[in-house]
Amino acid sequence: MLRLDTPEGNLPPSRRSVAASLFFSAYAAGAVAANAEPVVTPGEGLVEEDVHFEGAGGYHLPAYVARPWGRGRHGAIIVVNEIFGIHAYIKDVCRRFAHEGYVALAPDYFDRAGDPAPLTEFTQIRAIVAAARHEQVMGDTEGAIAWLSTQRFVNAAALGVTGFCWGGTVVWMASARFAAIKAGVAWYGRLVRPQVGGFGADEERPWPVDIASSLKAPVLGLYGENDRGIPVANVEAMRAALGNNSNPTNSELVVYPGADHGFHADYRETYNSEAAANGWARCLAWFRANGVR
Fold first, then answer.
1. Phi and psi (nearest 5°) for 203?
2. Residue 25 and residue 197: Cα distance in Å, rounded?
3. For 131-149, what is the mean pLDDT?
4. Whether the predicted pLDDT of 232 surpasses 80
5. Mean of the pLDDT values across residues 245-257?
6. Sheet harboring 219-224: ordered strands across?
7. What is the pLDDT of residue 2?
8. pLDDT tens digits for 38-89?
9. What is the pLDDT of residue 20?
């Protein structure tokens, strides 16, 4: 892997600083729709890198970065993947943020156990995801914060976090754990403990509804009315938890009528272009309103 050791002025705007990507180059094999027409965001004017930083337990964790080309410090957003890991969709989301003027970092939280992106068998995918236990994920997020805070192109006082599905839950938990995070946007992340036998129920850990009173940063939660895995009743339970704790961070929850789980994922059958566009606009506005810019 090539490192970016030269001044930015010597690097052409569209050049990647990696010889070959560490990550799966296509869309998640286990979920891509046959008729999908995913958004493809160009890399012109950006620097894209595969990097490593020290994660939980000193692990050498890989991550994908997209950022504006040129000098200057930018607000940074940690982008937390869904269960399919770092694939074309997550990298495209990072490029979208970079074109908005952000440094976007997507850590590979699943790297210790494998890469779920090329897999089609959900038992194999779930085994990889289940290996990323809560405290490991929080330690990896802490490592991501530390890495961003030392980069010459990052404004360390303007850090945010966003995530999708599995990553949406991470957003809530990280926003309660780390004071360095100024705002979070959680896309359809699980809010309450799964029922006995459900995926993730075997781990003794807190869930977003348990930490509503501990949030250190405001979180915008974006959910779908027709999400069978996260029913509206769970969203309302989270709303009540925020209300019961006086919601000191002014966190908000939005439920999109008719939208399903994964409504932002433009490579999936459940993609909802209207909800996705509205959610993206709300996401950008939320970060800017809360000092991540």
1. -90, 130
2. 33
3. 98
4. yes
5. 89
6. 46-54, 60-68, 103-107, 74-80, 154-164, 181-187, 219-224, 252-256
7. 28
8. 999 999 999 999 999 999 999 999 999 999 999 999 999 999 999 999 999 9
9. 57
How far, in Å, CA of 148 to CA of 117, rounded? 25
Residue partners of 31: CB distance under 8 A and separation at least 6:
84, 262, 265, 267, 268
Residues pairing with 263 in the sheet: none
Which residues pair with residue 163 across a beta bridge? Answer: 80, 186
Q: In the prediction, which pLDDT does 166 show?
A: 98
State the Cα–Cα distance between residues 97 and 80, nearest whole angstrom: 13
CA 17, distance to chain mean position in Å, is 22
d(CA 206, CA 217): 17
Average pLDDT over residues 222-227: 98
Task: Please list the active-site residues.
Answer: 165, 227, 261
Radius of gyration, alpha carbons of the chain: 18
Burial 137-167 (b: 16+ CB within 10 A, else e): bbbbbbbbbebbeebebbbeebbbbbbbbbb
Q: Kindly report whether the global pTM for this prediction surpasses the value 0.90.
A: yes
Domains of the chain, first to last: 8-289 (3.40.50.1820)
Structure tokens at 186: 């959680």
Reference 229, options 183, 195, 257; nearest CA is 195
